[in-house]
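#struct-help
A.M.: can someone run this one for me? Single chain, 241 residues.
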Amino acid sequence: MRVARISFRLRWVPLFATVGCVALFVYLGLWQAGKAEMRQNEIAQFTDRARLGPYQLDTALADPDSLQDAPVAVRGTYEPEKQFFIDNRQENGKPGVHVVTPLRIEGGQTRVLVNRGWIGWGSTRDVLPVVDVPTGVVQVNGIANRPSTKKFFLMPDREQPQATLWSRVDLQRFAKRYSVPLQGFVILQNPTDANDALVRNWPPPEDRVAMHQSYSMQWFGMAIALVIFFCAASFRARVTQ
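D.P.: on it. C-alpha cells below:
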C-alpha cells in the first residue's frame, strides 16, 4: 500500500529571497499608506482653511507647505517690467502661455508671483502676446500653489538671462535675478478676480487618497501571496510503500 507523506523542506536561498521581497513589499505598502494619510490630512486642512476664508498675506514670508492649495488674498502693486511668460501651456487644445506678474506686497519689499492666467499665441511665436497690467494698488485673490522644481530632460531651461519666456516657474531664479524677498509659492488668481482677456481655468487639488490606498493594498497583497507561495513550494509529498 502506498502512503503519501508530506514533508517541509527549508531551503535557505529561497528563504532569504522571500524575506527580502516581503520586507520590500511591506515597506512599499506602508509608504503608500503614509502618502494616503498625508494627502488626506492636506485635503482636510484645505477644507478647514477654506471655511475660514482666505489667508491674508503680508510682507512676512509665509510657510509654503501650510498654504499649499489654500485661498489667499493680498494687496500690492504689480511690476510689469518684471513680468514673464510660461511657455507650452494649452487651453482647449490651443497653444499659449501663462502670464506671471510679480506683485510688490503693500508695506514692504516682499514680492509674490501671480499667475494671472492663460493667453494664446498670435500668428507667430516670434512676438510675445501683449497683456495689459493693472496699475496702482490692487487686491489679488487666488490659490497658493508651490510650483514643481523638477527639471525635465527633454525640456531644459534654455532661456537667456534676460529672457521673458520661461519653460517653468522658477522661484529661485526670479529671487536671484532681482535680489528681493519672495514668497515661496505662486498665486493662481481667481477666475472672477479681474476683468481681462486672460483665461483662469485651474484644476482643483487632486484627491489621490483612494489611489494610494489601492497601491498600498496591492503591495500588502503581494507580500501575503509571496509568503503563501513560499510555504506551498516548501512542502513536498513523498509516496512510500
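A.M.: thanks! Strands lie at 3-8, 55-56, 71-78, 84-91, 94-105, 111-120, 137-145, 165-166, 182-189, 235-240.
D.P.: also worth noting: Residues 12-52 form the longest helix (41 residues).
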